[in-house]
Write a structure and sequence with these properties.
Blueprint (H helix, E strand, L loop, with lengths): L30 E6 L4 E3 L5 E2 L4 E14 L2 E9 L6 E7 L4 E6 L1 E3 L3 H22 L1 H34 L2 H13 L2 H16 L1 E4 L2 E4 L51 H13 L9 H132 L1
Helix pairs in contact: 1-2, 2-6
Length: about 425
Amino acid sequence: MSERKVLNKYYPPDFDPSKIPRARCPRNRQFTVRLMVPCNIKCYTCGEYIAKGKKFNARKEDVENMTYLGVRIYRFYIKCPGCLAEISFRTDPESTDYVIEAGAHRNFQALKLAEEQAAREEREAREEIESNPMLLLENRTQQSQYEMEVLESLEDLREMNERHAGIDPGEIAQRYQAERNMSQEQIEEMERCEALRALGYEMIEGQMVKRVREDLDDDEPRPPKMMKDSSSSGGGGGGSIGSSSGSGSIGGGSSSIIQVPHSLSNMKSRLSGMIIKKKSSTSSSAKGKIINNEEISEKIINKDKNNENINEKMIDNEEINEKIMNKEKNNEEINEKIINKEKNNEEINEKITNNKEINEKIANNKEINEKIANNKEINEKIIDNEKITNNEKIKPELKMSTALLSLGAYSDSESD
């Protein structure tokens, strides 16, 4: 089965394209194209709404005598699907949009209006900044403050990262893991050791030994000792404890015993039950406990070191904050100096403009003086011309008088 849409056509070997007659087409001829409506429109004739993206078979032509920066503009003609009225629109490269020319009008588009309003506000703000130097200065100060805030936030983040970098999460996890891995017997053993330390016992060579305080040796009453009667004179080896139970007698004589108080004996029995005597040779479990105690002490030392490092970092942070405050003060002073310089420049510019006006007035005065001098010359020329004209008026009178004189002389001669 052949293809429905053929892309490649067969050309015979004797094909000569020059023999194909060329059709004479008009200069601005229309082409039929398939397009989609660029926006939502409404027909003027029937009021049909045409949605954006609806496809039409349109006629395309070039718009004569209309280009934008050398870009050609095209016009399209479509027919309304409701009343077959013709609708035309053209491209607008300046705003990268389309313009509806005839047959319909564009519906309301909030996004387009918002973009136009934003562009208009931006243009007005730019013009206001260009015309108002104080507003430009305010914007510069705000921008510098924003930059300072950004730098401060960056420094805070760096300090936080350094603080977290000094703390090793793996080490902390190992500590808690070691505590979790301890068995219930080890926990009870640790609690028992802490209780004995609170009572004054210490671990020496794997055995709990009580340290007697020297300051209490003289104050505390000593326990009562067993004493003999002076009348006992031997019999049965005095001084040896007999094996009879419940008699409480020493030897076989009549020697008496001072008994120990019952409360003290109960305390000793309790303590003897708490103390676990160990052999002199340390076993593997004792060694493990000693190692655990050493690890705990090392962890405490590491915690102290970490606290010292944190305190040092806090001191460094305070110094950095002081430096930042000093920088801000310096920036404020610099801004004040800039404002003062701008004020001075404005005053100088005003004086320069005043001087320019004075110079213009002086130049005008010079021109006026030149005109006055020219007027004087013109007046002198006018006076000379008046004199010449006066002389010309006098000349015919003189001629008449000379003529009369000559006639009078002639008449006298005739009379003679």
